[in-house]
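Attaching the record inline, Q. Sequence:
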Amino acid sequence: MPTSSLTGVTDVHIHLQPFERGRPEALALIRQRVKDLDTLMSKLKDPRTLLDHLDAVGVERACLISYPAPEVLGFEGDLNTPLADFARADPKRLLPIGSVHPKFTKDPQREVEHLVSIGIRALKVHPPHQLYASNAYADGGLPILREIYAAAEKVGLPVMVHTGTSVFPGARNKFGDPMGLDDVAQDFPGLKLIMAHGGRPLWCPTAYFLVRRHSNLYLDISGIPPRRLLEYFPRLEDLKDKVLFGSDWPGPDVPGIREEIEAISALPLSEEFREKLFVQNARRLFP
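Structure, as predicted:
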């Protein structure tokens, strides 16, 4: 399918974080592995500029992700309000994904409800950067995480969970194992869960098994090099109703949104699958 024939594309994984406020070592890694970072960051400073860029690369809607990770990335404080303010420029096209950090909240129910009231469309959980397992509530180690999931389930807010490794200094990759989501998906059956990155590169078979097993679990393929996508997930089309396109832009080693779309479109995938991957599945999850 030529890229030009795709209309209504949703990119479910774009980072809109205060990179300039990051820890020096994290910012150094980003500069090392993201070409022309300053130009890319300029496109994320103003919503109109970002919307123009999305038009140029053939994307109709974008999920914009921000989350606190003070120990690893240095991002802290209220990131949800500026994220929601940014997305308010065009709420039909810009879908903000915020976060409630279990280590820095005393009233998750109230905080989740507040985020819904300001337009946040989903929550982000990043175990390797926020330094806890996705099921850390299960052993009693972080019981407030159960309250966050329960609050999100109650108000119908999807939760995106990073799975797989991270190259940032200080990241704890043991928390990237997606198997913890086996607990979360069962304990909160009404909660829509998005497994970001498919456990790449170490846990892709686990990710595939979990998405097949749980009706409330979706796979976001961002961060997987397109040339390796069918190597990591040789039966990807079996998940055709549950796979979401994400670019991970402007993340390390991501050449660009258009480049990701074109490379995936060139893979030997059916037209039906491409339509669901780029358009239909995200429309269903984020009406």
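The chain has one domain: 3-285. The mean pLDDT is 95.

More tomorrow.
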